[in-house]
Amino acid sequence: MTALLDVKNLQTHFFTRDGVAKAVDGVSFSLDRGQILGLVGESGSGKSVTGFSILGLIDPPGRVAGGQILFDGDDLLAGGEAIMRNLRGKRIAMIFQDPMMTLNPVLRVDTQMVETVRAHDNVSKAEALRRSREALVQVGISSPDERLQSYPHQFSGGMRQRVAIAIALLHKPDLIIADEPTTALDVTIQAQILSEVQNICAQSGTALIWITHDLAVVSGLADRLAVMYAGRIIEEGPTSDVISNPRHPYTRGLIDSVPQGKRHGAMLTQIKGMTPSLLKLPQGCKFAPRCPRADRVCEVEPTLDPAGPDRSVRCHHPHSEANGKATS
């Protein structure tokens, strides 16, 4: 069975006066229908740029410099902007971190949702309103008729994000890319939205890429995890396996930094140092300056290699599967 999305050696570079910033540098992954992929990493790791690259939303001085993005068998990079306009919002939708990037503050919700429906489908206003009402109910918004006649500023942050998700669902897309959509929400609303999104994917067969810096968020949501660092995937595998048995020291550091289970008043664990500038990346392993396991071998760039059943890791000294110690 052909994957819905197959990203191969994706390279997205930003050409600046100070040099070339390789924001995405050889990223590859695939996604099946109904599958949820968590794309995880610190700010600047390249995860959001990966999502924008898939949708063709990279603005100058950035551009996709190489690779393939195959969507349902078609190469999106070879299809041109006309093909992307037909796909965006209809077969591939995006949920942004700030819902006000999606919602126009001076237009009522019904106006915005009806325009979204009719941009791709030649249907009556009544049919567009019916679909809009149905989408609001799907994301857990009560009194949809009243909400349709409201303006975005009349909603709470969580409600605005639900509306943004509803807009993404209007055309029953094959793929949704969610760029940290619950970061600004409190944990209760966050949990509700995560549950609703998971149910939607299970019921409709929609595939989802959930971009986040928070491993705790995706641990109960995603089927697979891809951990990014300095523009590259450094570990990938089934979510439960990656969380319970991380192989890369960076993944181990991200998990250890989650405060859950810490004794009250105890110091939080942190990964030393900062993410490197994409204009001045270190030679060899990009994580080596921050890694407690680094040695001279790490002066050579590691490749993304198999690390057990359905697992891969980019590291010269990965943790062993059995006991979490470095392999020899």
UniProtKB/TrEMBL annotation:
InterPro entries: AAA+_ATPase, ABC_Ni/Peptide_Import, ABC_transporter-like_ATP-bd, ABC_transporter-like_CS, Oligopep_ABC_C, P-loop_NTPase. It comes from the Bacteria. It is found in: Cell inner membrane. It holds the Pfam family oligo_HPY. The keyword Membrane applies. Residues 305-328 are annotated as: Disordered. Keywords: ATP-binding, Cell membrane, Membrane, Nucleotide-binding, Transport. SUPFAM superfamilies: P-loop containing nucleoside triphosphate hydrolases (SSF52540). One of its GO terms (cellular component) is plasma membrane. Transmembrane segments: none annotated. Residues 5-255 form the ABC transporter domain. One of its GO terms (molecular function) is ATP binding. One of its GO terms (biological process) is peptide transport. The keyword Metal-binding does not apply. CDD domains: ABC_NikE_OppD_transporters. PROSITE patterns: ABC_TRANSPORTER_1 (PS00211), ABC_TRANSPORTER_2 (PS50893). It is a peripheral membrane protein. Belongs to the ABC transporter superfamily. This is Peptide/nickel transport system ATP-binding protein. It comes from Citreimonas salinaria.
